[in-house]
Write a structure and sequence with these properties.
The structure is a single chain. With about 250 residues, the chain is α+β, with helices and mostly antiparallel strands. It folds into three domains: about 80 residues, no CATH class; about 60 residues, no CATH class; about 50 residues, no CATH class. Helices cover about 20% and strands about 15% of the residues. The chain contains four helices and twelve strands, in the order ββββββαααββββαββ. A four-stranded antiparallel beta sheet has the order 1-4-3-2, with no helix packed on it. A two-stranded antiparallel ribbon has the order 5-6. β3 and β4 form a beta hairpin. The N terminus is likely disordered.
Length: about 250
Amino acid sequence: MTRPPTPWTDPQVGDVCTQPGGKRHEVVRVTYRGDRDWSSHEGLTAAGGGGDGVSAEPTTATCYLCDEPITDVDSSTLCEDCLARCYWCNQHCDDDPCEGRQQADAGRAEYERWRAAEPPSRCLGRWHWRRWRLTGAVFSLLYVSGVTANGGSSGNHCPRPGTLRDDCPGHPGWGWVHRGPGWRMLDPRRRRFYVLGMRTEWLELLPNCLRARHWPLWLEGMGCGRCAPWPCCGAIGYDHAERCSGDG
């Protein structure tokens, strides 16, 4: 049975669904394929014909890999044996770890050594200057004016993003931590997206538009709307004219 995956019709494990013809069954597995473009579910047809058509016996599902029965349907779609298998070799290699498991353990141990060598991260105070709204406004102004190549970053945690030793629990009530773009963003060889408050694409269109005796109307991903209007209706914006079919 196939139904569109909407919040109102999407089946869930344990639901009782009715198939065409009046047959009722209990959903034991739900499968999504693609980007949730459609969903399918499997169920056990109710045995007997008494009451509402649902069997009084407990329903058991099967494992997704080995088709063995699962007693606890709500917690997992795999049986206990498949859950205990190694992620890398899909076997029970606790006594003799496989190569993939050994490499993963070695990488995890190396990461823990690097993390232990890092000094503990400190939390910034409640009124630290990086939490001021003025700080974020200054960084944004530098970006829009073209002084820096980006506007920095903001986050809830006090350490920088990607820090190995992130011991900060986060302080949602203290405000965002604004981090500057850095000295490298002052390099004039880096591309600027804004110059004096205007997009660089708009400034690139300015000479040609002035030669055509009109002010540039920059559209994201389309260039100047006045230089290249819609051929079907002559509209200069993103959309066609009101009575245009939009074929051109």
